[in-house]
Amino acid sequence: MELRHLRYFVAVAEELHFTRAAQRLHIGQPPLSQQIQALEAELGVSLFRRHPRKVELTAAGQQFLPRARQILADAAAAAEAARRAARGESGELRLGFTSSLPLTPILHHSLQHYRQAYPSVRLTLREMFTAGQFAALEAGQLDVGFVRFNGPAPSDALCVEELHRDRLRLVVPREHPLAEAAGVHIAQLAEERWIAYPQEAGSGLNAVIRQLARDSGIVLRLAQEAGEAITQIGLVAAGAGIAILPSPLECVQIPAVRYVPLLDADAYLAMGVATRAGDESPLVANFLRQVRP
C-alpha cells in the first residue's frame, strides 16, 4: 500500500465522484479508477459502490476513511519534522560555558536571539572550565562551547573562533600599595603572593598569567589555589594574596578589594566559541550565526 493510494482514496471518498476527484488530483480519471481498484484488490474489500453518476462508500470504506486520513496526516507531520530538523529548527543543542561568561553580554544576547529564532530547539547548558569543554566536545558530549582561550585550538579535531577580548585586572586588598594605581605591569608583582585556579581545573587563565610573567622575567609565587573566582576575590579581601582575573568580574564589588588594570599588551583573556571541526549540524550553524558579531 502506497501513500498515493491513500490520497486517491480520500479524494474519491470526499468528492464521491471519480471525475471530480481526478480533476482535484490533476490526473486522468481512468488511471484513478485503476489505482482505486488496485487498492481494493490489495485490501481484499470493496471500498466504494459504483453508480452511473456517483459513488458511495461501503461499510469497509467508511471504516477505512478516518484511518487513511490519519496515516496521511502522520506522514505529512513526519515529513515536516524531518525538514525542520534538517533546517536546525528542532532537536537539542548542548552548550558549555565558563563561569565568567554570564557576566558578559555574549551569553545573554546569543541565547535571547537564538531562542526567539528557534523556539522549538531544546537548549542544555553546562558550566564548565575550558579544558573540560574541549574534552566534552571531542567526546561528542557538547555541541558548542564558550571557552576562555588565548591561542589556536588545542587539537585538529576542534575549531575555536575568537569573539571578544577581556582585559585582565589585578585584584588587591584595599590597603595594598597598588590599590589606587591607574594601572600596573605584571613585572611589578614579583614579590606578590598569587591566588590562582588549580591546575587540574583546566582554566586557560593560569597559562596566560604565567606567560605574561615569563615575558616580564619574573616568576609569580603561588600562595593559594581556589576553583571559583568569587572565592579568589574573597581570599584577596582576607589578605591571602593577590589575584588576576578577567575584567567582567569587576562587577563583584567587595569594599575590601580594588581592581587595577594590567597594562601589559597581552594582558587579556579571549572569549571564544568552540565546535568540532567539520561539524555540519544545522543546529550548530544556526547558533553560530546568532553568536557572531
In short:
The chain has 293 residues and is of the alpha/beta class. It has helices at residues 3-15, 18-25, 29-43, 59-86, 105-117, 130-138, 205-215, 229-237, 282-291, and strands spanning 48-50, 55-57, 91-97, 121-127, 144-148, 158-173, 193-196, 221-225, 242-246, 257-261, 268-276. The protein contains nine helices and eleven strands.
Description:
With 293 residues, the protein is of the alpha/beta class. The chain is 40% helix and 24% strand. It contains nine helices and eleven strands. Strands 3, 4, 5, 6, 7, 8, 9, 10 and 11 form a nine-stranded mixed beta sheet that branches. Strands 1-2 form a two-stranded antiparallel sheet. Helix 1 packs across helix 3 and helix 1 packs across helix 4. The chain is rod-shaped. It starts with a helix and ends with a helix. The mean pLDDT is 92.
Strand content: 15-25%
* Helix fraction by DSSP (H/I, runs of at least 4): 25-40%
* Overall mean pLDDT: 92
Indicate the low-confidence ranges by residue numbers: none
CA-based gyration radius: 33 Å
Largest sheet: 9 strands, mixed
Count every helix, treating DSSP H or I runs of 4 or more residues as helices.
9
**DSSP strand tally:** 11
Cα(first) to Cα(last) distance is: 52 Å
Shape: rod-shaped
